[in-house]
Automatic annotation (TrEMBL), chain A:
Protein name: Signal recognition particle 14 kDa protein
Keyword Cytoplasm among UniProt keywords: yes
One cellular component (GO) term of this entry: signal recognition particle, endoplasmic reticulum targeting
Biased composition (Low complexity): 130-145
Record region (Disordered): 117-158
UniProt keyword Cell inner membrane present: no
One GO MF term attached to the UniProt entry: endoplasmic reticulum signal peptide binding
GO biological process: SRP-dependent cotranslational protein targeting to membrane
InterPro entries according to UniProt: Signal_recog_particle_SRP14, Signal_recog_particle_SRP9/14
From TrEMBL, chain B:
Keyword Cytoplasm: yes
Name assigned to this protein: Signal recognition particle 9 kDa protein
Keywords: Cytoplasm, Ribonucleoprotein, RNA-binding, Signal recognition particle
GO cellular component annotations of the record: cytosol; signal recognition particle, endoplasmic reticulum targeting
Function: Component of the signal recognition particle (SRP) complex, a ribonucleoprotein complex that mediates the cotranslational targeting of secretory and membrane proteins to the endoplasmic reticulum (ER). SRP9 together with SRP14 and the Alu portion of the SRP RNA, constitutes the elongation arrest domain of SRP. The complex of SRP9 and SRP14 is required for SRP RNA binding.
SUPFAM superfamilies: Signal recognition particle alu RNA binding heterodimer, SRP9/14
Entry's Gene Ontology molecular function annotations: 7S RNA binding
Organism from which the protein derives: Rotaria magnacalcarata
Location in or out of the cell: Cytoplasm
Domain of life, per lineage: Eukaryota
């Protein structure tokens, strides 16, 4: 289903909620550049291809400076989301890109929360590191309390 | 098959995309505490798998920059 940007974002958030409830199935998001064509590129016959080649070579040899470049094309971006059998898609142009990108990033960050926190590094050095730091912490506190007790008791005795 | 380090994935992905921006697509699959990123131009495919939240932030930034590039005016 092709939607406008706002509608697409709304439907996408719904899909995330559904996935959270069901706790099954995978949500696929896809992005691809789009140049706005609605008709397929026509396949040329061999004759046509040869003709085109001749024309191109003639043009190049006569005036090498003039090149037909497509620098006026404004690209868009196709974004698709698939969950189970539900398919959503939208087209984003550069005009809406700022808005869409912010909203999209926020959506992803808010909804992909079942990922774990980074596990402790499993290198050989780091467990030794952490254990020694822990040991340093524990002896210090009883020592300080013992010192405090020692200071108070002579006063009481006196 | 899966690239182990994020930096390596980002570097290769950028290279692949800039090589032919029209042909490349980025796919993101999210399921059951796993996130899989895939950038392909139908010839080669780069994949990255993660289950950590901190990788999501990096992936986010990467996706945003790619989005911007895809919809921009090109020379």
């Amino acid at each position: 289903m092709l939607f406008e940007i706002d509608h697409f974002l709304l439907e996408l958030s719904k899909l995330f909620q559904q996935q959270r409830i069901k706790n099954a199935g995978s949500l696929s998001l896809t992005m691809k550049r789009y140049d706005g064509r609605t008709k397929p590129k026509t396949q040329l016959t061999k004759k046509q291809r040869l003709e085109q080649k001749n024309v191109m070579s003639k043009v190049l040899s006569s005036s090498p400076s003039t090149t037909a470049s497509n620098d006026s094309i404004e690209y868009k971006c196709l974004v698709r989301a698939i969950y189970g059998s539900k398919k959503l898609s939208t087209v984003v142009s550069s005009k809406d890109m700022n808005r869409f990108q912010l909203a999209y990033a926020n959506l992803l960050k808010a909804n992909m929360d079942t990922l774990k926190k980074k596990a402790k590094e499993s290198k050989a050095t780091t467990p030794g590191h952490t254990s020694t730091s822990m040991n340093n912490n524990s002896p210090s506190s009883p020592v300080s309390t013992q010192q405090k007790k020692a200071s108070t008791t002579p006063n009481k005795k006196k | 098959m899966f690239i182990q380090s994020w930096d390596e994935f980002a570097k290769q992905a950028e290279r692949l995309y800039l090589n032919d921006p029209m042909a490349c697509r980025l796919c993101l699959k999210y399921r059951n505490e796993k996130l899989i990123l895939r950038l392909t131009d139908n010839r080669t495919c780069l994949q990255y798998k993660t289950k950590y939240a901190q990788d999501l932030k990096k992936a986010e930034k990467f996706m945003s920059s790619l989005l911007r590039h895809m919809a921009s005016k090109e020379a």
